[in-house]
Amino acid sequence: MNRIYLDHNATTPVDPAVLEAMLPYLRDAYGNASSVHELGRAAREAVEKARAQVARLLGAEPREIVFTSGGTEADNQAIRGVLELARTPEGRPGHVVTSAIEHPAVLNTCQYVAKRGHAATYLAVDTTGRVKLAEVAPAFTPETVLVSVMLANNEIGTLQPVREVARLAHEKGIPVHTDAVQALGRVPVDVDDLGVDLLTISSHKIYGPKGTGALYVRRGTRIAPLLHGGHHENRRRAGTENVPGIVGFGRACELAGERLAEVAAHEARLRDRLQQGILARVPHVQVNGHLTERLPNTLNVGFMFVEGEGLLMNLDLEGIAVSTGSACSSGDLKPSHVLLALGLDHAAAHGTLRFSLGRSNTEVEIDATIDAVARVVERVRAMSPMYHDFRKQQQAEAASHA
């Protein structure tokens, strides 16, 4: 069976060129980047080269890049690091403003700091998943020390007006963090254009290795370290650097920058083909999220009268890998907090699938997916009491008008 992978928002395969760059640091160049001998110096040079590659993709300075174990750690360091320094001498806690549809790495961190004396406000979004700008400034208080709004949503692909949010926050002297994990490599991400002070990225979303990420920290932004130990990463993140992972991340960023426009156009073309095919072949569906301000590779579709998990498992049997939401929520039977924030009821939220495309997907794969989705939805609906009740109601209404 030729499998079709449409879950690139969960993770991406490692690019062969990335693996090739990493291999020497897994075999022969195994030195600790903090050691002063030749092997250590070679590792340090590789780390700093990767730091420059990551910074170049973001329009940042290399010294503003802090390597982490991934996006979750970077989000934690951004939020907890700012809030730790935010307390006044009198002990007054800080306040963070975020959105209702953030990744759990942000939402759960905000909930964590709220349980420890700080405060958090969650901005509502409209039916397309965009933050309501009119509600941003009124959410600020004298204690607000950070705004954290993601650049692109991982489930529906909607792009947030981060630039405008940052302008409003900076008018009050409040620093801004954005989780750009899903946006990197799919849309342009420039820290000066966005106006952000902190930005989270992750390697395995852009064809790099898992277990490596980074936090951009604008020069002059005050932030406490999350981990304590050695003086690594300019005293901002203790722990021996994952040299192979960092090297792979740097190479992945370099390739992402070179291929950005071409890949985005390719993915958008396939996404539109998939969307049009599903809408033409499958009745009673809706596209969730913004139809224009969205990632080029992401399509979230709600299928009435069925459970998304049932569709996912049936498509998996057909050799097609998709998702019902974020990979971090796999196994959670609760409806997506993102879809509920859009105004969907529980039944509609449970009946959704996320298709996230990658640069290796083809038109042949998309057409095969459309055919499979049409078959699977029809088969699953045939066993759905909800669908049978709907059809009976339709037939009764038709008879009454006859």
Radius of gyration: 23 Å
CATH uppermost class of the largest domain: Alpha Beta
- Write down the domain tally: 2
Based on Cα principal axes, name the global outline.
globular
pLDDT under 50 segments (min length 5)?
none
In this structure, how is the largest beta sheet organized? 7 strands, mixed
Mean pLDDT: 93
Q: What is the strand tally?
A: 12
Strand content: 5-15%
Q: How far apart are the first and last residues' alpha carbons, in Å?
A: 49 Å
The helix/strand order is EHHEHEHEEHEHEEHHEEHEHHEHH
CATH topology of the largest domain: Aspartate Aminotransferase, domain 2
Class by helix and strand content? alpha/beta
| Adjacency order of strands in the biggest sheet | 2-8-7-6-5-3-4
Number of helices: 13
Describe this structure in words.
This protein has helices at 16-27, 38-58, 71-84, 104-114, 162-170, 191-194, 232-235, 243-281, 308-317, 337-341, 346-350, 363-381, 385-401, and strands at residues 4-5, 65-68, 95-99, 119-123, 144-148, 176-179, 198-202, 213-217, 285-288, 298-303, 320-321, 352-356. It has 13 helices and twelve strands. The protein is 42% helix and 13% strand. The mean pLDDT is 93. β3 (95-99), α4 and β4 form a beta-alpha-beta unit. By secondary structure, it is of the alpha/beta class. α2 runs parallel beside α8 (243-281), α3 runs parallel beside α4 and α9 (308-317) packs across α12 (363-381). The strands form three sheets. Strands 2-8-7-6-5-3-4 form a seven-stranded mixed sheet, with helices on both faces. A three-stranded antiparallel sheet has the order 9-10-12. It folds into two domains: 4-9 and 260-401, Aspartate Aminotransferase, domain 1 (Alpha-Beta Complex); 16-256, Aspartate Aminotransferase, domain 2. The protein is globular and about 85 Å long.
